[in-house]
Amino acid sequence: xxxxxxxLQTVSATxxxxxxxxxxxxxxDFAGQVEEFSRTVEYLQLVAAAxxxxxxxxSTVAAxxxxxxxxxxxxxxxxxSPGGWETGGSGAAxxxxxxxxxxxxxxxxxxxxTATPADASSGPASVVDDGYRNTAExxxxxxxxxxxxxxxxxxxxxxxxxxxxxxxxxxxxxxQELAAAVAAGEVASRAATVIAVALxxxxxxxxxxxxxxxxxxxxxxxxxxxxxxxxxxARSWADALDQDGAEPSEELLRQLQGAFI
Length: 261
Known about the structure:
Elements: H1 2-19, H2 24-75, E1 78-81, E2 84-87, H3 96-113, H4 117-120, H5 124-128, H6 135-143, H7 147-160, E3 163-164, E4 170-171, H8 176-183, H9 189-202, H10 208-224, H11 227-243, H12 250-256
Antiparallel strand pairs: 1-2, 3-4
């Protein structure tokens, strides 16, 4: 990643001067290459957002487990002594080994109480104790992006990235054809969001076959046309399936953009 970033920064440093000598073909080719880079980076943004969300949730679970274990050790009233496990009442005598262990624990607790903030920040709990209510807010602050954009990335990642099933087994993405196109750099991230939102709208209104045909049509539309046209086609599909479950006619699609079919 560092090498790729350095290479792009090198190109960027002289891009303005280089562009001054290009003809139309060279400028057009450069614009196309930049757009391909952009779509690849957008896919990596989804992967990164999902990874941050997953690791924050895992840290939350780990921190909760540590806290629960600590609470249990202080509230059960049981302790281990050289003679085995025993309860500790207020008037019970403690073996010398247990008393020494208690003194050591007290000393450790005192040291923890006077620890520096850097010491207190270590451990699983520090990962999620970052002052943010959720991953979207964390991404907003960490990446300096809008909250809406952070939520969009997280939502799209759930739709087009492989998921984790029971026992940690991988599960295919919700929208597999769209996911493959986004991963290959054929469909831009925002175009994929348009498709995912449209598919979510019709999900309770049509059967799986109709939804699959819609996903295929919109994915190919996004790969071959501009985003404005994609929005119109997606709305046409959603409205048609919402109304009577029928796919939009070829005539309607031709009206949207000439001889599209």
